[in-house]
User: What shape does this take?
Amino acid sequence: MQSRTMLLAGAFITSMFLFSHCNEQAATTATVTNGGYESQVKWGEHLLRTGGCGDCHTPKKMTPMGPVDDSTLMLSGHPSQYPLPDIDRTILESKGMFASQTLTFWMGPWGVSFAANLTPDSTGTLSWTEEQFMTALREGYSKGIKNNRRLLPPMPVEATRNFTDDEIKAMFAYIRTIPPIKNVVPQPLPPASAPPPPPAK
Assistant: This one.
């Protein structure tokens, strides 16, 4: 009887050890996948915020302390109704760089670029796939489509191409949860000094 009791006790202890070890492995896997955050979405939010995506993709409003994010327009890109300033682009583009008050459009030697709408609206990233998002960040193609134009400054593709697959997937999961905002962002403009396109035949 005593040996049987000891065998049962040993089997119980072994099963508890294996159960607890499996749980530890599952918890570790979840932690790695979520970057130590409680969910993939929370990790994605952290990455977008610390990565500075909102610096250009969220319009700013002016306060006594300077420009701050307009939380009602989070990640919606350059406001379509915001006009270009009346300045001499030729001189500016040849001498330096200019940013709008909203920090959503930039002028420089490349012309004029506008921050994209990243919200899950039909005018934003609603139709994007995870693979397109990865291609945009890694290879710098507009909308993540390789036949499209290259993304323009100040998009930091040299930095974003270093995100891991899991990090990019987390960021994509997060932008799927933010409020959709209808905003058709203008197409980029070529440099003011660029030769005019040939006349249509």
Q: What stands out?
A: Residues 156 and 179 are 25 Å apart (CA to CA). Residues 2-33 form the longest helix (32 residues). The radius of gyration is 25 Å.
